[in-house]
Amino acid sequence: MRRGGDRMRAIYLTYLAWFIALTIGLPLVLMAVEAVTGFDISSSAVSIIPAMIAAHLSGISFVKRFERVPEKSESWRFTFVAFGLLVVATLVLTAGFLMVFPDLQSEVAGMMDPGVLAIFAAMMAVILLVLFVTTRIFFGLGARTQFKALARQREKG
């Protein structure tokens, strides 16, 4: 049992690494595209894409390590742990961003108005729910895709 836990730890770290890299890298790539082309192709999906891709790649990683599709209980356990990592990583990245760009602190302080804070909290609740569901769906999707590819590979020889 311990060995499986160690292998899952690697999958969680894979998720966290991809999530952080994409959370930082995707906006930078989009800014570069805008600087070169003059077109702003960013959208609200930028906040969801890192979790989607990280979960998908983690599902692939699960199948590569265990050579099977995760059971439902394993997929849900992954989702809860990955979601916790997502929340903590987002808080740490936000704090770091505010330290690097202190001018933004005054804008964030402006959100402390109760009306604005309530709207922001409601929006964040919806985004977090979408991220949770997205993580669950894309972990399973990545695992099933990799498992089918592995099965086709075995059939070929």
TrEMBL record:
Transmembrane regions listed in the UniProt entry: 12-33, 45-63, 75-101, 116-139
Family annotation (InterPro entries): ABZJ_00895-like (IPR047730)
The entry's keywords: Membrane, Transmembrane, Transmembrane helix
Organism listed in the record: Thioclava marina
Source taxonomy: Bacteria, Pseudomonadati, Pseudomonadota, Alphaproteobacteria, Rhodobacterales
Protein name per the record: Transmembrane protein
